[in-house]
Amino acid sequence: SEQPLDGAVALVTGASSGIGAATARRLAREGAAVALVARRGDRLEQVARDIAGLGGQAAVIAADITEPERAEDAVQDTLDQLGRLDILVNNAGIMLLNPALHSTVAEWDRMISLNVAALLHVTHAAVPHLIYAASTSPRQVADVVNVGSTAGRVAQPGSSVYSLTKFGLNGFTESLRQELLGERVRVGVVEPGVVDTELMNHLSDTVRDAARRRIAGIEALRPEDVADAISYIVTRDRRVAVNEMLVRAGDQT
Ligand code: NDP
């Protein structure tokens, strides 16, 4: 049967787990062919099998997008394997919580290089192809969806540099949105609250325990809940542009 994203190609960064994996599966269900980008190839293969099982099409692109050349190649590989690019979901991100006093600059650099630099490199490579897709596809529109965070709206202790990356992402998103208006490339940001993913796995035991205590009693969002928001944005008719969606867990302050 006909699906809203039939014929479209989506690239999802960070598609090996959490929000990215759920989004890739969801966009495939909406009819898109999906390029799966992350470092863990085995996990991407699993997501690709899930998509094939749904009758969809996926391309596995194992890449560390913090290497600028790999970020650019990820976009080119998508074009080579799936033929076009209609939807870019910039989802890959890392959150290394720690008060500034106890952080290393290496932790800060890792967040900047993935949440900011890698996102910019992928986006820069993708935009010309998105413009072309918008002007040639039956949808007559293309999309960039950036995954921000409530930490990009509200700053808290322990997340100074993570908040820097996500507050900054909102500014980048809004400026790019205005720049691409005439090209019919929509640019928006989804800002999830607490989501049950592997994001906290990268924290030290003590920092993770403290973070878990802060969110104890809150029923976390599921990755599928965020995939739902992203799917809503990219399946709208071209006359509709959803610029921003803040999606908190029901019990979250
Ligand atoms: P996960 O840790 O489950 O997912 C992160 C993804 O990023 C993984 O697929 C990981 O794959 C990928 N990634 C990490 N480093 C690289 C790299 N160098 N190159 C390519 N891919 C990379 O966490 P989430 O699903 O929660 O995170 C997704 C996004 O959601 C992030 O931007 C995060 O900031 C945001 N977010 C999450 C919230 C939450 O509560 N979970 C709340 C608000 C926002 P691999 O390791 O295989 O490379």
UniProtKB/TrEMBL annotation:
Oxidoreductase among keywords: yes
GO molecular function, one term: oxidoreductase activity, acting on the CH-OH group of donors, NAD or NADP as acceptor
Domain Ketoreductase, chain residue ranges per copy: 8-197
Record's keyword terms, sorted: Oxidoreductase
Short name of one Pfam family: adh_short
Keyword Oxidoreductase applies: yes
GO CC annotations on file: membrane
Domain of life of the source: Bacteria
Homology family: Belongs to the short-chain dehydrogenases/reductases (SDR) family.
PANTHER family: DEHYDROGENASE/REDUCTASE SDR FAMILY MEMBER 7B (PTHR44196), DEHYDROGENASE_REDUCTASE SDR FAMILY MEMBER 7B (PTHR44196:SF1)
Name the UniProt record assigns to this protein: SDR family NAD(P)-dependent oxidoreductase
Organism: Microbispora oryzae
